């Protein structure tokens, strides 16, 4: 950064040396017209170079260390220079109106989303997403979440009426043929029971007891006694067994009138039970009693903890980031990008925020410039300025010497002509 000013300063010094050497070398020849012209030209160039050297040096320091009045202008006017720089920055270069105007059309939201979209698949972003997701999941306050979830579950379950479900279940039993399947199962069990040897004796004994209990008068009682003398438990049991077995076989056959009557009775009774207010109230009461005795908070907390632990184990290798997380984030970014109203609102909020921040802190820009200038001593400040504008200032010296030389040529030639 300092190379060019130093080279230019060296060139400026050499311009003075050349003018001085030329002036000294031409003095012995001033008796001739060419010598006189050279003396006048080099003399004017030397004077011009020295004058500009004095002017440039006087900006930064005392020439030759001599405290000549009105020299070392920058160190003496440091405060004025600082305030002028602060004023220029605040009121001209970075004034509030110009900054506000520039950022008014700034599409900050689009830039942020586009940047996220480009960088989303980089390793650094993936690692950040993985770490963030795991920490969020591991840090979930399940002890606080569980009571809220349990309360909502109990509230929803308590308000849920089981009556319509019971009615729908009764309809489904018929529509899906569950009643026929239940009847077939019952008939199969009855058939297996009827063919067992002990069933005959059981039916016979039960039939004999039932007939013995019948009370009749006169001839009917005589006939009944004669009939009872003919029967015994084995015979009566076989008769009843045969009759029941025939009825079971009949009900197993599709299209049987008896099967149809039994199924129709089952369906009718099932629907009556389903729409019965007493049954529905009893079922809802049973449900509410279960809810009252259920420690929902503990159950929910255990289940949430179990789910969280399983999720953390599944997330351990980080493959979920590419499989699920990035896909979800890309969809969210695309949805946001497509929502023009939302993007406009986000941009407006960002501009308003930056403008408000600028209005509150605009004076700090000038203070920052002032603080940074005040941190530098005179030597550092002068070195900084010379580094930035020193090259042009040294060219003033070179131009002064060259311009003086040219003017010396013109004035000397004019004087020689007039003489």
Automatic annotation (TrEMBL):
What is this protein identified as? DUF445 domain-containing protein
Q: Which domain of life is it from?
A: Bacteria
């Amino acid at each position: 950064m300092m190379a060019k000013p130093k080279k230019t300063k060296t060139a400026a010094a050499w311009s003075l040396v050349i003018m001085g050497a030329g002036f000294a070398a031409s003095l012995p020849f001033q008796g001739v017209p060419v010598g006189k012209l050279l003396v006048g030209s080099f003399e004017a160039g030397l004077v011009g170079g020295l004058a500009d050297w004095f002017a440039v040096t006087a900006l930064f320091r005392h020439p030759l260390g001599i405290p000549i009045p009105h020299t070392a202008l920058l160190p003496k006017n440091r405060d004025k220079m600082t305030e002028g720089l602060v004023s220029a920055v605040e009121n001209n270069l970075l004034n509030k109106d110009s900054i506000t105007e520039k950022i008014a059309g700034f599409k900050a939201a689009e830039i942020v989303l586009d940047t996220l979209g480009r960088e989303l698949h980089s390793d650094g972003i993936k690692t950040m997403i993985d770490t963030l997701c795991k920490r969020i999941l591991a840090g979930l306050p399940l002890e606080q979440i569980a009571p809220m979830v349990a309360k909502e579950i109990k509230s929803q379950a308590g308000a849920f009426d089981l009556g319509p479900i019971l009615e729908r279940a009764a309809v489904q039993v018929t529509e899906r043929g569950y009643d026929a399947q239940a009847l077939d199962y019952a008939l199969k069990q009855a058939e297996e029971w009827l063919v067992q040897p002990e069933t005959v004796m059981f039916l016979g004994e039960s039939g004999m007891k039932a007939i013995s209990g019948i009370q009749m008068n006169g001839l009917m009682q005589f006939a009944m006694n004669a009939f009872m003398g003919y029967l015994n438990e084995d015979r009566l049991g076989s008769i009843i067994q045969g009759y029941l077995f025939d009825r079971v076989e009949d009900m197993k056959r599709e299209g049987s009138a008896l099967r149809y009557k039994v199924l129709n009775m089952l369906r009718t009774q099932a629907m009556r039970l389903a729409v019965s207010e007493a049954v529905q109230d009893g079922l809802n009461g049973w449900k509410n009693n279960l809810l009252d005795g259920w420690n929902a908070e503990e159950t929910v907390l255990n289940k949430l903890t179990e789910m969280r632990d399983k999720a953390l184990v599944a997330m351990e290798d980080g493959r979920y980031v590419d499989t699920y997380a990035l896909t979800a984030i890309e969809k969210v970014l695309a949805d946001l990008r497509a929502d023009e109203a939302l993007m406009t609102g986000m941009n407006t909020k960002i501009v308003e925020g930056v403008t408000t921040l600028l209005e509150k802190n605009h004076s700090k820009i000038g203070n920052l410039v002032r603080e940074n200038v005040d941190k530098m001593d005179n030597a550092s400040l002068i070195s900084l300025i010379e580094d930035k504008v020193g090259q042009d200032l040294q060219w003033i010296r070179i131009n002064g010497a060259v311009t003086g030389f040219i003017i010396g040529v013109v004035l000397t030639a004019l004087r020689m002509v007039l003489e």
